[in-house]
Specification:
The complex is a heterodimer of chains A (about 220) and B (about 70). Chain A has about 220 residues and is mainly alpha-helical. Chain A has 3 domains: about 50 residues, no CATH class; about 90 residues, no CATH class; about 60 residues, no CATH class.
Chain lengths: ~220, ~70
């Protein structure tokens, strides 16, 4: 448990509640695992409270052509509402709509998606679009959002996503990764060039690099040490 | 109602033990934030439904209204 993990959790909870992380300073004493469980409960409560309305938005997306749905979503839905509505979509429809929306809007929506309920939906988004969104999130240095999702991506999409990140970005994302149990698999995907870039970026990101090494098998640790 | 009961009520769930052990006023404040988020979401939904009807092309507006409003 580190202060960085607590900060990442407070940032995610703050987004869900619509307040800055500093507003949640009273929760700093709680363990990251408890904060994560609390976030799940808040997300479930918010979704359940308007489940019927979100289902209607999902039904609308299935009823009218994707070109119109995408235009309406971008014009009138806040990223938070678009995220909640996404939870009512099938992976196929989510992929169809995402393909028609700009990466900047999808990056806004990604900040509000609950990976606990949307991991299956995100799988439907084309890999090329996910790479675009990852590049946009990296440009914003939004490691927390990426850290929530990359662990849910299929291996091929994950490999493509890594091509959009430099060594420093990878270290920052892996540090706040929700699915740390995939770190060894992810490290094994690194090309020699990416591994070298990651090691070079470790200078100045010591905490992140040490955390990565601590989650690797001896084989992958040796490769990066 | 104490802070923990307020949070239970706002979440409709039993908070994790590590959260329930936090000071009373922190729990009451957190419960207030959850209720506020719920209200904001409901308000945004209402506004988005209204705005949707204005933005969709006329030929599909009837279908959209039926789906959104019932």
């Amino acid at each position: 448990m580190t202060a960085a993990e607590t900060h990442a959790e407070l940032m995610k909870l703050g987004r869900l509640l619509g307040v800055p992380p500093a507003r949640l300073s009273g929760l700093e004493a709680a363990a990251p695992a408890d904060l994560r469980a609390l976030r799940g409960q808040v997300g479930e409560r918010l979704f359940a409270a308007d489940r019927e309305a979100f289902a209607r938005v999902g039904l609308l997306a299935r009823t009218i052509p994707a070109a119109i749905s995408a235009k309406v979503a971008e014009k009138v839905l806040s990223p938070m509402l678009a995220a909640r509505a996404t939870e009512s979509l099938s992976p196929e429809k989510a992929g169809e709509l995402a393909g028609r929306l700009p990466a900047s809007f999808l990056a806004d929506v990604a900040q509000h998606l609950d990976p606990m309920r949307t991991a299956d939906v995100v799988v439907g988004v084309p890999a090329a679009k996910i790479v675009e969104v990852a590049a946009e999130l990296a440009r914003r240095e939004d490691w927390v959002t990426m850290g929530e999702f990359v662990g849910h991506l299929p291996a091929a999409t994950l490999r493509a996503t890594m091509s959009a990140l430099d060594g420093a970005a990878m270290l920052q994302v892996w540090f706040v990764l929700d699915a740390k149990d995939r770190l060894d698999e992810i490290a094994a995907m690194l090309t020699d060039e990416q591994a070298a870039a990651l090691v070079a970026a470790a200078d100045g990101l010591d905490e992140q690099f040490a955390d990565l090494l601590a989650h690797l098998s001896p084989e992958q640790r040796a490769r990066l040490s | 109602m104490d802070g923990l009961d307020q949070l239970r009520d706002a979440l409709r769930a039993e908070p994790p033990a590590g959260i329930a052990a936090l000071p009373e006023d922190t729990l009451a404040d957190l419960a207030g934030l959850v209720r506020e988020a719920r209200r904001n979401q409901a308000q945004q939904l209402g506004e988005a439904f209204e705005a949707t009807l204005k933005h969709v092309p006329f030929p599909v507006r009837g279908i959209v209204r039926k789906v959104l409003v019932g």
